[in-house]
Amino acid sequence: MTDTAEVIVVGLGAAGAAALYQLARRGVRAVGLDRFSPPHDRGSSHGETRITRHAVGEGEVYAPLAIRSHEIWRELEAATGARLLETCGLLTLAPADGSATAHGVSDFLGRAASVARTFDIPHERLSLYEVRARWPQFVLAGDEAALFEPGAGFLRPERCISTQLAEAQRLGAGVVLEAPVFSIEEAGEAVRVVSPAGTFEADRVVVAAGAWSPELIGGPFRRLTLQPQSLHWFECEDPAAFSPSRFPAFMWIRGGEPEDSFYGFPLVGAPDRGVKMACESQDSIARIADFDRTPPATAGAKVFERHIRGRIRGIGPRVLSSAMCVYSTTPDSGFAVGWTSDRVLAASACSGHGFKHSAALGELLAKVVSGSARRIPPEFALQRLA
Ligand SMILES: Cc1cc2nc3c(=O)[nH]c(=O)nc-3n(C[C@H](O)[C@H](O)[C@H](O)COP(=O)(O)OP(=O)(O)OC[C@H]3O[C@@H](n4cnc5c(N)ncnc54)[C@H](O)[C@@H]3O)c2cc1C
User: Fold this and answer.
1) N or C: which end of the chain has fewer CB within 10 A?
2) Which atom of ligand 1 lies at the shortest distance from residue 47's CA?
3) Are 128 and 245 members of one domain?
4) Are 209 and 217 in contact (CB under 8 A)?
5) Beta strand residue intervals within 141-300, DSSP E
6) Ligand 1 test: best mutation among 56, 62, 350, 358, most atoms within 8 Å of CB?
């Protein structure tokens, strides 16, 4: 038996849950399928927190997505009572000479400040004296520049996904879980999506399969590099000093290589949960089936020794817990969004900075797939991956 819909969404992580919710909001008859039961801890969207900021050093094309996403998160909060977005502010530290790179962008802090000016985003260029006075937890070397965005902060990714899926269902969308799609084929005037949970047909399909995209969609998505990342929760001496009212989310970019930077959050949840901090790894795996969700035994200690010791006052070396998550990264660290055939629209929005944009990206996907918008930013074009 074949189920029909106007649009099928394959993959209900950050981008797919947002797309399904936005389709349902527009009254489009939509069904979403996922191979697991999102939110889950097997892809790119778990680990309690994601940094969100409007002054996005990754480029001006991302700022409208980040700004619109905050509006959507706030709308969802108002509609459901869920707390999704915490605006504890974001402090970015980087060498004052502009030599450091993040997410493939040189002089990341300078570019973020430029985006803030262009889009009129409240921000402060702080002296090191001001940073030390506000947040004595940061032990600065003295060669840093500092940018503070008070309206930035963090999102709760699992809750963002579950809230959008619940809202999508409330508005009439179908959600089919534990349904790994193994084929997406055009069949005359429709697209046929086959999974063990059944065969589904629709006018169009959105594929938001994250780290599974290379194998499910292939083509340009084979250019994605899958990079496992470890996350760690460290013991803190004085939990109050790391509460969101006294400690911001931060990115500390210390050099030209991704491994030279680290980032962290205020304490979220119970005091004995620990404070989450991590750095980015360039190690890669050939396919998502090779993703080992067991954190290497020494990974947290390495992050502490390389980054935290001597830089964050009040965080101890004891690792309370760790987790693994995976980046899917394009060669230029940008998003990949486009039509892979007349009826299949695919998106990969990771490269370590996609969550903050996911609500608005879902809205863009919903508009484009249902025909109410056509324009996909050329910066996201699939052709550049060819
Ligand atoms: C450690 C880490 C830290 C990050 N930090 C930040 C941050 O601070 N700020 C920020 O903005 N971004 C951050 N990101 C990036 C952000 O989390 C990702 O961009 C985003 O979560 C990617 O979402 P996605 O929808 O593409 O993938 P996912 O959320 O992984 O969703 C893909 C979904 O597709 C499903 N699926 C796959 N194949 C199939 C199939 N065949 N059939 C059915 N379903 C299928 C999967 O089960 C999964 O649910 C970080 C990422 C990681 C890994």
Assistant:
1) N
2) 1
3) yes
4) yes
5) 144-149, 153-155, 174-176, 183-187, 190-195, 198-207, 225-236, 249-252, 262-264, 275-279
6) 350
pLDDT digit string, tens, across residues 179-210: 999 999 999 999 999 999 999 999 999 999 99
Q: What is the pLDDT of residues 312-321, one digit of tens each?
A: 999 999 999 9
In this structure, the answer to whether residues 272 and 302 fall within a common structural domain is yes
More confident residue, 257 or 155: 155
pTM: 0.98
* Ligand 1 atom nearest residue 355's Cα: 11
The CATH code of the domain that includes 169 is: 3.50.50.60
Using the atom order of ligand 1, give the atom closest to the CA of residue 327. Answer: 53
| Number of domains within the chain | 2
Residue 313 and residue 241 share a domain:
yes
Same domain assignment for residues 296 and 274: yes
Distance 329 CA to ligand 1 centre (A): 11
Query: Measured from the CB, is residue 184 less than 6 Å from ligand 1?
Result: no
The CA 213 to ligand 1 mean position distance, Å, reads 11
Residues 6+ apart with CB under 8 A from 295: 230, 231, 232, 322, 323, 324
